[in-house]
Design a protein that fits this description.
Helix 13 packs across helix 14. Strand 19, helix 15 (428-443) and strand 20 (447-451) form a beta-alpha-beta unit. The protein has helices at 45-53, 75-80, 98-102, 116-129, 145-158, 175-190, 202-208, 231-239, 292-299, 322-327, 337-341, 348-353, 368-381, 398-411, 428-443, 455-461, 484-492, and strands at residues 5-16, 19-30, 34-38, 60-65, 68-70, 83-86, 163-167, 194-198, 211-216, 219-225, 257-266, 269-277, 281-285, 307-312, 315-317, 330-333, 361-362, 365-366, 416-420, 447-451, 464-469, 472-478. Helices cover 33% and strands 26% of the residues. By secondary structure, the protein is of the alpha/beta class. It is built from 17 helices and 22 strands. It has two domains: 5-239, Rossmann fold, CATH 3.40.50.300; 257-492, Rossmann fold (3-Layer(aba) Sandwich). The radius of gyration is 24 Å and the shape is globular.
Length: 495
């Protein structure tokens, strides 16, 4: 085995009842490289990293680390070999301090008693390496997602990490925070650490990776040098087909105004006015903290309006709660679909019907037949891939979870839909499906407000874009004016 190969997976197989999650997967990872791992949801990426981390047993194959061969991994063995994983859901203890989280379970000196001074000093030393100003005594629950991620990286560094696996690390981060993370990755790389970088964001893959491997349907497909491939080839390898049209074209020109927002203030936003037409997709842009989600909460009645008016179909709408919004046929697809958009432990049918449960009940008795018919209708319409309506939503892919959230709003007969980061954390194939669904909905007259941090998505899907900056409306951009630089200038307050 070549000396610079630090991790080699050979014919890794993992089976679940009725499903082959990993089918003879073989990949090699080199010392000091950033190796991107791509694939649609369900391709086997998460299963593979769990196998490497010892979180699940494998049914066949072998794992080679440091010249040694292992037919099974355990968490303890994996970590002893210098393998650390930063999952999408951080593995931190919120009430404990930063330093306590970093060194949890470790001895920082020869004494058995906890030496907080030594622990805090070692944590500060790690942060200095990465030019990070973070107080080791701060409680983790008081930190931003970006700061929590730095704590996770510091944990790995404290364990003398050799192979660091990062699963969708940029999902909760702003543009500036992503740049800082990239700088830290480069420092680790220079120290010989191998980074396995899992992401759906292809622009990041081309920015940060040296090589990229693609998985599809539990199988290894190919590995490419990043500089020798392109977006089109990688998408084709991931989905097994060529995606000819990323952003579907419009067929209906919107004319009739269905939503007017006049001088709206509250939830950190101030004096915001705009309108949305029937069948229009209005993009909402702005930097993190600009007030985009805050605006969505005001429109949906989930935050208190201090002043201003919301007009729906030419009539003043008094929206003080989500129930008021639903009554005015306004639906919200939250950016936090797992935390706020779904009941993960409940089935598909129950999630879809929940917003209209009163409408389906007479004298406290639920009409199960109608409920089932509605759930079946929207499952088909959204092309939700599920073995049954009783399937727990937690077991669906990210793209199918997002479709369930959308189905909920459509079942409630929403005429105005607010999409907050509609494609966050879902793969390129599922993105295409979401885009197509959005366009079909708009062509059928549903007005869509789309909040997105992905500039390409905003430019590709929107008919118009409004830009927020520090809680205020910074500008409105017509289709013929679309420009990334112009929108960023407005968002940063420099225009």
């Amino acid at each position: 085995m070549n000396a610079n190969i630090v991790l080699s997976l050979e014919n890794i197989t993992k089976k679940y009842p009725g499903v082959v999650a990993l089918n003879n997967v073989s990949i090699e990872f080199l010392e000091g490289e950033v190796h991107a791992l791509l694939g649609e949801n369900g391709a086997g990426k998460s299963t593979l990293i769990k196998a490497v981390a010892g979180a699940i047993p494998i049914d066949g194959g072998s794992i080679h680390v440091g010249g040694q061969t292992y037919h099974q991994m355990t968490p303890h063995l994996s970590r002893s070999l210098g393998i650390e994983v930063i999952y999408q859901e951080f593995n931190l203890v919120p009430p404990m301090s930063v330093a306590e989280n970093i060194f949890l379970g470790d001895r920082v000196n020869e004494k058995r008693l906890v030496d907080y001074a030594a622990m805090n000093a070692k944590a500060s030393e790690i942060f200095q390496q990465f030019d990070v100003a973070l107080d080791p005594t701060s409680r983790v629950e008081d930190l931003s997602p970006a700061q929590q991620q730095i704590v996770e990286i510091a944990k790995a560094v404290s364990k003398k990490v050799k192979i660091l696996i990062m699963d969708e690390p940029s999902a909760p981060l702003s543009v500036a925070e992503v740049e800082h993370m990239f700088a830290i990755i480069q420092q680790l790389k220079q120290k010989g650490v191998t980074i396995i970088y899992i992401s759906h964001r292809l622009e990041e893959v081309f920015r940060i990776s040296d090589r990229v491997s693609v998985m599809r349907d539990g199988r290894y497909v190919a590995t490419r040098l990043t500089q020798e491939t392109n977006r089109k080839e990688l998408i084709s390898l991931m989905v097994g087909r060529e995606l000819k049209e990323v952003y579907p074209s419009r067929t209906v020109i919107p004319t009739e105004t269905v939503l007017q927002v006049k001088n709206l203030s509250g939830n950190g936003d101030r004096d915001i006015s705009f309108s949305v037409k029937k069948g229009e997709i209005l993009g909402i842009s702005g930097l993190v903290g600009a007030g985009r989600t805050e605006l969505a909460m005001l429109l949906y009645g989930a935050a208190q309006i201090e002043s201003g008016e919301i007009w729906v179909n030419g009539k003043l709408a008094h929206i003080r709660s989500p129930q008021d919004a639903i009554r005015h046929r306004i639906g919200l697809l939250t950016e936090d679909r797992k935390g706020k958009g779904l009941f993960l432990e409940m089935g598909v049918r129950w999630n879809i019907s929940f917003p209209i449960i009163r409408r389906l009940s007479k004298r406290g008795v639920l009409d199960f037949q109608t409920e089932n018919e509605i759930a079946e209708k929207f499952t088909r319409r959204m092309n939700i891939k599920t073995p049954s309506l009783e399937q727990r939503v937690i077991n669906l892919s990210g793209g199918n979870q997002q479709k369930v959230v959308l189905a909920k709003s459509l079942a409630a007969e929403s005429d105005i839909l607010i999409f907050d980061e509609p494609t966050r954390g879902i793969d390129v194939g599922a993105k295409q499906e979401i885009y197509q669904l959005m366009r079909e909905l708009s062509d059928h007259g549903i007005a869509i407000l789309m909040i997105s941090s992905e500039m390409e998505e905003l430019l590709g899907m929107s008919d118009r874009i409004i830009v927020l900056c520090e809680g205020k409306l910074a500008g409105e951009v017509q289709k013929e004016q679309f420009s990334q630089d112009y929108i960023l200038d407005l968002a940063s307050g420099t225009h």
